[in-house]
Structure formats: structure tokens, C-alpha cells
Amino acid sequence: MGREYDALFEQLYLAYFQELIKYVYHLTYEKHMAEEIVQDTFIQAYKKIDLLAKHENPAGWLYVAARNIT
Q1: What is the pLDDT of residue 1?
Q2: Cys bridge to 34: 25, 39, 47, 58, which one at CB 3.0-4.6 A?
Q3: How far is C-alpha 39 from the chain's CA centre?
């Protein structure tokens, strides 16, 4: 993975981790489950960071991925 991808992943993680926790918590009402789902979401994002770098709405991708895991 290149530096630009590392930087993008870090930027997405810092910007959306807490917001995704809140979002998924409102779907599950279980804090531990919400944390695991968001962790899984970011694992998927890391694996597909090359696609996210080209995606028109990476934040939206994260929310959809988290909802789909739920």
C-alpha cells in the first residue's frame, strides 16, 4: 500500500470512527457490537482502499458497509 493510501485510510479513520460508532450503536443498541462492526468496516476499507481512493463518496461507502455488516 502506498503512502497516499495510508494517508487516506488514516484520514477516514480519524474523521469517521466515532461517528460510525454512534451510527451503528443506534442500529444495534449494543456498544460492544457497534465497536466490532465498525472495526470490521475499517478492515474492509483497508482491504479496498484503492477503490475508496477513487470513490466519489468514501464516507458514504463506510456508512453503507457498516450498515451491511449489521
Answers
A1: 60
A2: 25
A3: 8
